[in-house]
């Protein structure tokens, strides 16, 4: 969960800092200085848009490459918090629409703000579940070797996982719903993968 929050916060902070940075430079008259025949006020949003586009494309391509590297899912499962993330996605889209109404002339800001729902959306559309080499959640694979334990109660299968992200090591829980008719088969499969 912290990994998702950090990723979203990074994009949000870059967007907000670019907005206020542009505002500050505008007040000080720096935006009128010309480079390559264009003013800094014109170049700055273009550079920020290119950087954000590279980040989004890299994220999308890395999801596809990891899917090819770790293989397809053996069992497609449903997350327990999927509805909350879908609601979060629609809130982001609503914010984008609201900003579009308020700022119809500032296309570059809308573009930057639109990157967040785009990234959130394709992560939510990824299939999730169990594969031979890893567990997929939110488009991110977690190797079976990172699973420290698992818990199976009624229809809820929860993995306790230790993951490294940037400079942090964190313990996270990955919960899935399991249909009753698949419970024995999936539990046997998990035991063979985790080795606990």
UniProtKB/TrEMBL annotation:
<feature type="transmembrane region" description="Helical">
    <location>
        <begin position="84"/>
        <end position="102"/>
    </location>
</feature>
<feature type="transmembrane region" description="Helical">
    <location>
        <begin position="7"/>
        <end position="27"/>
    </location>
</feature>
<keyword id="KW-1133">Transmembrane helix</keyword>
<keyword id="KW-0812">Transmembrane</keyword>
<keyword id="KW-0472">Membrane</keyword>
<feature type="transmembrane region" description="Helical">
    <location>
        <begin position="33"/>
        <end position="63"/>
    </location>
</feature>
<protein>
    <recommendedName>
        <fullName>DUF5673 domain-containing protein</fullName>
    </recommendedName>
</protein>
């Amino acid at each position: 969960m912290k990994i998702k929050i950090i990723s979203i916060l990074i994009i949000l902070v870059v967007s907000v800092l670019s907005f206020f940075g542009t505002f500050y430079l505008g007040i000080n008259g720096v935006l009128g200085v010309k480079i390559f025949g264009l003013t800094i006020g014109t170049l700055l949003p273009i550079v920020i848009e290119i950087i954000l586009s590279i980040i989004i494309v890299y994220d999308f391509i890395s999801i596809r490459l990891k899917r090819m590297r770790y293989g397809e899912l053996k069992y497609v499962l449903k997350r327990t918090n999927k509805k909350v993330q879908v609601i979060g996605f629609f809130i982001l889209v609503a914010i984008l629409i609201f900003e579009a109404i308020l700022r119809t002339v500032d296309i570059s800001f809308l573009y930057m703000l639109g990157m967040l729902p785009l990234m959130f959306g394709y992560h939510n559309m990824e299939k999730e579940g169990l594969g031979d080499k890893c567990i997929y959640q939110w488009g991110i694979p977690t190797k079976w070797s990172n699973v420290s334990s698992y818990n199976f109660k009624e229809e809820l299968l929860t993995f306790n996982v230790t993951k490294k992200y940037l400079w942090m090591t964190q313990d996270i829980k990955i919960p899935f719903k399991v249909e009753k008719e698949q419970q024995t088969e999936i539990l046997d499969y998990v035991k063979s993968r985790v080795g606990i």
